[in-house]
Structures are given as C-alpha cells and as structure tokens.
Design a protein that fits this description.
By secondary structure, the protein is mainly beta. Helices cover 12% and strands 42% of the residues. Strands 7-3-2-1-22 form a five-stranded mixed sheet, with no helix packed on it. It has a five-stranded mixed sheet with strand order 4-5-6-8-12, with no helix packed on it.
Length: 344
C-alpha cells in the first residue's frame, strides 16, 4: 500500500507537469487569426502535421488591430539568445513614417500556457522597428505585406510593396533583408542588411503586386552558389519563383505556376523541403503542389473555429521554460512531503 501511495505521490504531479511540456510538442504549424466578433484580438492556433487543431493562445495585441503576418525562426528578436521566437507585424496600412513596428514573442512552442490563455510579448523587447526606405520626404511609401524568417539566424525578411503617395498606384516589389541585433531594448530600430557580403534587398518586381511570399526548396539549384529560393504569390493566384545566386546580386526569375482555385482566395503560402509549395485557401483547405511538375501532391482541410490570416511551418521541438522547471520541482517537493506524512 505504501508503495502505491509513493507512486501516486510522484506520478500524479509529474503527469500534470509533463502536460506542460508536451501540450504543443506535436505542433508543426502556427496560424495567426482572430476571434469571432473581436477582429482586434489576435489568436495563435496550433496544428499538427495532419492539420488537426491542437489548441490556441490569445496574443497580447490590444490596440493593434490589423496585425496580419507572422514569422518564426531563430534569433529574430533581440535578447532572445538565438532561441526560436515569433514576430507579429502590427499593422499593414499606408503611412509616411520611416519604420514599421513588429511585436516580439518568445517561442510559443515552449509555452506552458494552457489552451485559451494569453501569450505575453517578450518583456525584454516587446517590439522592434523595421526601418523603411520611405519617409515623409520621399514621393513613395513602402508597405510591408508579409513577414518571413530566412534560413540564416538573425535574418528577418519582409515582402514590401512600394506605392506612389499621390495616388496610391503600385510601383514595385522588394524583399527587404533585416539583420536583427543580438540585444536591444524595446522599440529598438532594426536596419536592413548592407554589408560586403549581403544586400539590403532583393528586387522581385514583375509588374504586379504580391500579397505573400515564402522561402523553401522549389526546384533543383543549377549550381552550388544558389543561396536562397523564393516564391511570391499575386492576388490572382500566380506564383513567381526566384533563385538567389549571390546575396549581393539581384534574384533570378525561374518561372511561374498558377494555384488559382475558383471561388477561393489564397490566405497564405509556405515552402516545403522536397520541392513542394503549400497553399492555404479561404475555405481553410490546404493544397500541396509539386513545384517541378506543377501538379497536386496532396490536400487537407484545417479544423478550426477561428478566422485565419497567415500560417507558418515550425519545428516540432519543445524546450521547457524556467516556469515549467519550477513547477516540476514544486511537484517533486509536494510528492516528498506527502510521502513523509504517509510514513508517520
């Protein structure tokens, strides 16, 4: 009987705490969305590899209605110690200011917060300012359409459409490359990369506006100097593929394919690691395309009760936070106390 009591003393608390570690370990996708009837309250939804919803967290984004793009990766926020993190674009509207504000969050996969709870912004750096080329002195304005982390740690990519201030007519599209500092205070300005080995932007203008982009492996590199492969999508569902042979040169156009579906808008795209492109449509169906044959590979449907705005693929690795460790030690201490009481 005492042995059973001993096991219960330790097993129950450990099972409870282990759920803190394991609740998001099967998450392979994160989606940004909104609650019904609360368009300014953004939620972060977790999905497994089969696109089953695992849960959601509300994001601390009060007064930031319009946030519409997320990026996930290593080293993309200051003071993060090169750990995985999430950034959320605050707004997407015409402005003549020279920066765009982005909210910063710690790795949501390592969160010990239960489904429905609130994920707070990172307190060491609640937001960063992405510096734009446009300002109140330029005749044009640069508008960030979508965010995405690059393969290199600490590099954040932003798809930017440029417009005339006078009549809002479209001019061209770029992908700005930002080098996020390893440390900084809230509101830290983040400047575009401009070094001997890296260019501050890639020109992706093909005469049309883009609405989303992703990096991935879309086609076989023609030589070993290719550093990145990019896919940009237009509002009509046309995907433009590009290769970057050298960060200091312009990107190379590698052709197009159409993912247009009758009666469906494209919400988000992301790249795979086997020459695949994933497309999320407005009815929350997900199609996987072979970017070489340009044919369907598979299709799925997201199980969700929330409106989705953007989606990213993440690594399903969980690293417990200090709070989780504290809970574990607390559970062990409780088990020891109960065991001592049982022996008396």
């Amino acid at each position: 009987m005492k042995k059973r009591f001993f096991y219960l003393c330790f097993a129950c608390p450990l099972l409870a705490v282990s759920s803190l570690f394991a609740q998001w370990e099967n998450a392979e996708y994160l989606a940004l969305g909104s609650l019904s009837g609360a368009s300014s309250q953004r939620v972060l939804m977790y999905f497994d590899s089969s696109f089953n919803q695992l849960g959601y967290l509300t994001l601390e984004t009060s007064a930031y209605e319009g946030a519409n793009s997320i990026a996930y990766g290593n080293g993309i926020i200051p003071n993060g110690g090169n750990a995985p993190a999430l950034v959320l674009q605050r707004v997407s509207s015409y402005t003549t200011t020279s920066s765009r504000e982005v909210n910063c969050y710690k790795d949501p996969l390592a969160s010990a917060i239960s489904s429905g709870g609130q994920l707070p912004r990172d307190q060491s750096c609640t937001y960063i300012n992405l510096q734009m080329a446009s300002s109140h002195l330029t005749p044009y304005v640069d508008n960030v359409v979508s965010l995405g982390s690059a393969n290199t740690d600490g590099i954040l990519l932003a798809l930017v459409n440029r417009y005339n201030i006078s009549d809002n007519s479209f001019i061209s599209s770029f992908i700005y490359r930002y080098q996020v500092p390893e440390s900084g205070v809230y509101g830290v300005p983040v400047y575009r990369v401009d070094t001997e080995t890296q260019a501050p932007r890639w020109d992706v203008d093909t005469g049309v506006e883009y609405k989303d982009f992703t990096t991935g492996i879309f086609f076989s590199p023609y030589d070993s100097e290719v550093t990145d492969q990019i896919a940009c999508i237009t509002a009509d569902g046309t995907v433009h593929f590009f290769q970057v042979k050298d960060p200091k040169t312009n990107i190379i156009d590698k052709g197009t394919m159409s993912v247009a579906m009758d009666g469906k808008d494209v919400l988000s795209i992301w790249g795979g690691d086997n020459y695949s492109l994933f497309v999320l449509y407005s009815d929350y169906s997900v199609m996987e395309y072979d970017t070489i044959s340009k044919e369907f590979r598979s299709s799925s449907f997201l199980s969700t009760d929330y409106g989705i705005i953007d989606m990213v693929k993440v690594s399903p690795v969980v690293v417990p936070e200090p709070a989780a460790y504290a809970a574990l030690f607390g559970a062990l201490a409780l088990g020891v106390a109960l065991l001592r009481r049982a022996r008396r």
